[in-house]
Amino acid sequence: MTSEGECLVIGWNRRWIVMAVIGTAVAQASPAGAQIDYRNLDDDRPTLIEDAYPAERYAFEFQVPWRFSRDRSGGTLHAFVPELAYGIFRNMHVGLKMPIAGTSTGSGREWGGAGLRAFAFYNFNTESRSLPALALRSDVTFPVGSLAGEGTRVTIKGIATRSWGRTRVHLNGAYTLGSDRPLGAAEAANKWWYGGAVDRTLFRQSVLLLGEVYALRALTVEPVQVNASVGLRVQMTPYLVFDAGIARRLKAGAGPDLELTAGFSRAFAISALMPSGRTR
Predict the structure, then answer these.
(1) Which domains does the chain have, with CATH numbers?
(2) Is the pTM of this model over 0.85?
(3) Partners of 120 in the beta sheet?
(4) Are 51 and 171 in contact (CB under 8 A)?
């Protein structure tokens, strides 16, 4: 059995590894005046809140994030959430997620699929002098996999983004239709949640630093969580972005004791799917 001292050492080693990866990514970031992918906040990448702008038209974006979470009881979760999005129209993208999770149990760790999620994102308007950028997103979560929970759920989310120079403010709010059945182990369709985030562009416009606070209720019988997160997004190449974040509960008794996330996203296009004469 692992001693308390060994657990502490393992915990510190994980934190040093995450800090080293973040430091390396920042050090390798180069000036990126025409690059904007690092400013496109995706849901849970690296924080829960996303911005009101879709993927570029006719472009694909492939994401490979990893998430670690630990609760007060000592239970842990590892999740890999591959995602593919496609800019089907000028102001709209669609996509799929298929999380794979590993949860700790009394007899060890159980791995399995944690659902299948299809989503569509539509931006009503870009930011103007009088209005923020506004978008609507809809997700349908299917119970696919041994850790996917029960029942199909539909989530509707409203998104707003407002800019002041290199600083932006984002507001998100979401509500899920469906009964109070057990949720998936990862990327769960929470009953409702809302929150706000602020981000700031740093390091010659190639690094984005952000922070958020949000409240959520997973199920109507569950307590309300109030959590805070900080994260960054780094433009590694014109089409490759690294992100990392850390989150913790602000309200005693509900929410993660510690949550870490890190991953990469890669933008690309398939010429056969682009109209004649269209280039990136």
Answers:
(1) 4-268 (2.40.160.40)
(2) no
(3) 94, 138
(4) no
